[in-house]
Amino acid sequence: MKTLLIYLMAVWLCEISMRAQDPSPSSAPSPDASEIPKNYEIDDEENRLISPDEKYAVLFPVRNEASDEENGPPYPPNLLVRLKPYTVLAKVRQPGLPIGWRDKLLAEWNGNTVVAIYVESKWGIADLSVYEIDNDKLKRAHPIFTEARKYFDRDFHQRFLKKHPKEYDHYTFVGMEEVSDFEFKGRQVVVNLYAENKPNVAPGPIWSAELLGLWNFDTGKFDKVDFKPGEISIRKPEE
Questions:
Q1: What is the pLDDT of the chain when averaged over all its residues?
Q2: What is the pTM of this model?
Q3: Three-state secondary structure of the chain
Q4: With the CA atoms of 171, 172, 173 and 178 taken in that order, what torsion angle do they form, in degrees rounded to the nearest 10?
Q5: If we measure between CA atoms, which residue out of 231, 132, 233, 228 comes closest to residue 184?
Q6: What percent of the chain has pLDDT over 90?
Q7: Is a pLDDT exceeding 70 seen at residue 169?
């Protein structure tokens, strides 16, 4: 019995020793940020703003939390960079969004050289561009959100504001829980956007529209667009 206890104790001590030698996730090497400018920083806690191979990253201007009125906004642009040797590949958002700002700059990588950079606001997506990198240089930028918004702008002004000219000239993109705003499909991106003029459920004339599109990296434009205007209605005040 004593021999068995000694054996079990030895096994237990050996296991503890081996666990102590295993590197923990927190001790994993971080990307080399030694060459980035002092007025920029990296945030990759949850936003996937560093490429899987840790070669490229999206940078944030350092926020002056003491006084935003003194040092910004506007902040210098967010940058897509090669970390080492440090090289700026593109200005991806200007003026820039710092970490902790009310709108969030996020990224989704498709491999190591294709990245979708987008802005998430209160109600949903507010910007989306895809950047292709080749041989450590920017190959092409795809302004997907800008092109998609043209469909919404045209319908909102021609179909809604002409009928209700006193309404506020603004609408908001709203995220839908059941579908993603965009998704990589090989050399294409599926885009699913929805917008309305009063997402806060305010009363009055209501406009909405939805777009389902397929963006082609090779042509740099939409291959297919299915734009669906919603019915214009009047929302009554809550009693």
A1: 86
A2: 0.83
A3: CHHHHHHHHHHHHHHHHHHHHCCCHHHCCCCCCCCCCCCEEECCCCCCCECCCCCEEEEEECCCCCCHHHHCCCECCEEEEECCCCEEEEEEECCECCCCCCCEEEEEECCCCEEEEEEECCCCEEEEEEEEEECCEEEEEECHHHHHHHHHHHHHHHHHHCCCCCCCCCCEECCCCCCCCEEEECCEEEEEEEEECCCCCCCEEECEEEEEEEEECCCCEEEEEEEEECCCEEECCCC
A4: -110
A5: 132
A6: 69
A7: yes
Amino acid making up residue 229: P
Residue whose tokens read 């210098």: 76
Residue with tokens 């002056």: 64
Domain boundaries, given as residue ranges, for the chain: 30-142, 145-239
**What whole-number distance in Å separates Cα of residue 148 and Cα of residue 211?**
8
Q: Give the pair of three-digit tokens for residue 200.
A: 């806060």
Residue 41 CB contacts under 8 Å (≥ 6 apart), including other chains: 59, 60, 62, 99
